[in-house]
TrEMBL record:
Keyword Phosphoprotein: no
Family label: Belongs to the glycosyltransferase 2 family.
Domain Glycosyltransferase 2-like: 6-134
Keyword Disulfide bond set for record: no
Name of the molecule in the record: Glycosyl transferase
Length: 338
């Protein structure tokens, strides 16, 4: 029997959350789908849980085999999928009930759209994370992964036409796939709707995983910058990583990052890789993030200004308790700021 959507859910040692994840898909308002679950050689009770769930709902197609890793599992799922649309799902997240309905409607409305993602709500904190939309998505991909992988719905034939996920891009295989699709002229977009509750696992410290992700991200950055005619030095690449995830920095580091962003804009004016207005929107948003840490740009001035504001507030709240000469101390502090 034909179906309109294949939900692809790889699972490996996910006994704590997999039932919750599967149940959230089975509860979708759009009921015409198959749920393709590939148990990637789990050694815990994941397999038993999935077998029990599969017996309860014939929309579940369960594949169980030896461990091959996530990328091999994703590519296997693309080839096994029975539907033209493939929706990704992780074994520890929860899909909101209207996820498939909203995404399929959007994909039907825009038949040239290759991939559609969405915003997510972090389960541990309740915080909502948004992904870039429209014209800003392509230039944003020069700095960071522009989509939340477990939220995407994609056209199966397009993903297969570009070779699926590359096995030599571990820990950022999705990021590399999105940039390859964009370079090939395919359109990607994100909805502002929150369609997934995402488990971030902030307690998990995975240095080896993060190190491999950084290595893969470096390859993706170099490829994207090469399209602009830029071969970055080691120092420039560090600056690019900094622009991708701004953090408290000195005025020197901020100036260096601003110069780097200006170079990217200049090269784009020459090579026309990205829409100029969209790229400048992205670089402006990065610059806004760079300049939101004043206490490290001018630490002494920040401390003195903060102390002045605090003392002034105390004075006006408790003026009848404070000796008059205290006002002179505060005013001398104020004058030293100019």
């Amino acid at each position: 029997m034909s179906t309109s959507i294949t939900v692809l859910l790889p699972a490996y040692n996910a006994q704590a959350y997999v039932a919750e994840s599967v149940t959230s898909i089975l509860a979708q308002t759009h009921a015409d789908f198959e749920l393709l679950i590939i148990d990637d050689g789990s050694t815990d009770d994941t397999g038993k849980i999935l077998q029990q769930l599969a017996r309860q709902d014939n929309r579940i197609r369960l594949v169980q085999r030896e461990n091959r890793g996530l990328i091999a599992t994703l590519n296997e799922g693309l080839h096994l999928a029975a539907a033209p649309l493939v929706a990704r799902m992780d074994a520890d997240d929860r899909a909101l009930p209207n996820r498939l309905t909203i995404q399929k409607r959007y994909m039907d409305e825009y038949p040239k759209l290759a991939v559609c993602g969405s915003a997510v709500r972090v389960l541990e904190t309740g915080q909502v994370w948004y992904a870039p939309q429209g014209e800003a998505l392509a230039p944003r991909s020069l700095f960071a992964n522009p989509m939340f992988h477990p939220t995407v719905m994609a056209r199966r034939d397009i993903l297969l036409s570009v070779g699926g996920y590359r096995t030599d891009m571990p820990c950022a295989e999705d990021y590399e796939l999105w940039t390859r699709l964009l370079e090939g002229g395919h359109r990607l977009d994100n909805l502002t709707d929150v369609l997934l509750e995402y488990r971030a696992h902030p307690q998990n410290f995975r240095p080896a995983y993060k190190a491999r992700m950084r290595q893969t991200s470096e390859l993706i950055y170099r490829s994207g910058l090469a399209r602009l005619g830029i071969t970055p030095s080691a120092a420039q690449l560090e600056t690019h990583f900094f622009c991708a995830a701004p953090a408290p920095a000195t005025s020197f580091e901020i100036a260096r990052a601003q110069s780097w962003l200006a170079l990217i804009e200049c090269r784009n004016d020459i090579h026309h890789v990205f829409d100029n207005a969209a790229l400048r929107f992205v670089t402006a948003s990065i610059q806004a993030e760079l300049t939101c840490f004043p206490f490290l740009r001018h630490p002494l001035r920040w401390v003195k200004r903060t102390a002045y504001r605090t003392l002034k507030s105390i004075f006006f709240r408790h003026a009848h308790y404070i000796p008059a000469r205290f006002l002179g101390i505060v005013e001398r502090m104020r004058s030293s700021l100019h």
